[in-house]
Amino acid sequence: RATTLGAGPIQFFRATDDEAAVRRHALERDLASALANNQLSLAFQPFLDLGSDRIRGFEALLRWRHPTLGAIQPSEFIPIAEDIGLIHDIGHWAIKSACLAAAQWPCDLRVAVNLSVVQLKNKALLDGILTALSDAGLEPKRLEVEVTESVLISNFEDAIALLQSLSFLSVTVALDDFGTGYSSLTYLRKLPLSRLKIDRSFVQDMLTDLDCAAIVRSLVALAHELRIDVTAEGVETLEQLEYLRRVRCDEAQGYLIGKPVPIDDIPALLRGRLVRNDALE
Ligand code: C2E
Ligand code: MG
Ligand code: MG
Ligand code: MG
C-alpha cells in the first residue's frame, strides 16, 4: 500500500501500480471459482420497438459480485477472463442462462448475448450455442449474438464463417458499438447482419452536434437500404428518443427505457411494459 512505502511521487506511483497488480491478481484467482460459487449473474436490459412502443426483448449482461470487493464491472473482468482463458466457460454459462431465461418469456421476445473476439475463435462455440438452445427449448430465431468490430479485425474469415453458420440456423447477428472502432463498410457488406447497434457516444452527442445528428440519420438510412435494423444504445432522454423516432430508428435501448435488471424483475417489467412509462408519451 502507498502508506507503507512512504511519501514522494515515485513511491506513490509504484505503490499504485502494485495495488493494481494485486487487485488484478486477486481477480484472476477468484474469477476461476466465481462460477462455481454462484457469484456470476445476468442482468437484462430491454429493447424498445419505436414503431409499436413495445419491448421486443432483452440484452443479457454479465454481473460479478465479488465476496469482498463488491460489484466488478464487465469492462474489468471480461478482459481478464479472456486473458486467462476463462471466457469460454463464463461465456457458455451466459449463453446457456440467457437461453433458459428467454424460454420463460412470451415467444415474441428475443434475448441478445455478447460474444467476445476470443469466444469467436473457439471451435466449440457453435456447438455450445446449439446445445444451449436445444436444452432450453428456445427457437434459434429468438437468440441474437452481438459482436463488435474488434471481433472481426483479428480473425475476419473465421468470424464470418461462424456468424454465417449461426445465421443459417436462424440465430440473428448484431454489430455492437457501431462507429467506435475501426468501422468498415465491408462489415456491413460481408457479414450476415440483422442489426446494427449505434454506439452510445453518437446518441449522447446527436442533439448538440449537427454532424453527429447527420451521422445517426445517415446510418439509419444506410442500414435500412441494406435491410438491417437499427438499435440506438444509451438512450437517456426523451429528446433523444424523439429524435430517433423521427429518423426512423427501429429500436432504442438505454437507461430511459430501462436499466439492466435481475431476471426476477422481468415479469413485472413486462406487465408494466416499461420501467419508465413516460418514455412512451
Ligand atoms: P455493451 O454490449 O455495449 O453493453 C452496453 C453497456 O452500456 C452495458 O454496460 C450497459 O449497462 C450500459 N448502458 C446501457 N444503457 C446505458 C445508458 O443509457 N447510459 C449509460 N451510461 N450506459 C448504458 P455493462 O453491463 O457494464 O457491459 C459492458 C460491456 O461488457 C458490454 O458492452 C459488453 O461488451 C461486455 N459484456 C457484458 N456481458 C457480456 C457477456 O456475457 N459476454 C461478453 N463477451 N461480453 C459481455
Ligand atoms: Mg452488447
Ligand atoms: Mg453496445
Ligand atoms: Mg456501447
Automatic annotation (TrEMBL):
* Domain named EAL: residues: 24-274
Any idea what this protein is called? Diguanylate cyclase/phosphodiesterase
Q: Which organism is it from?
A: Mesorhizobium delmotii
Please give the first and last residues shown and the length of the full protein: 373 to 653 of 653
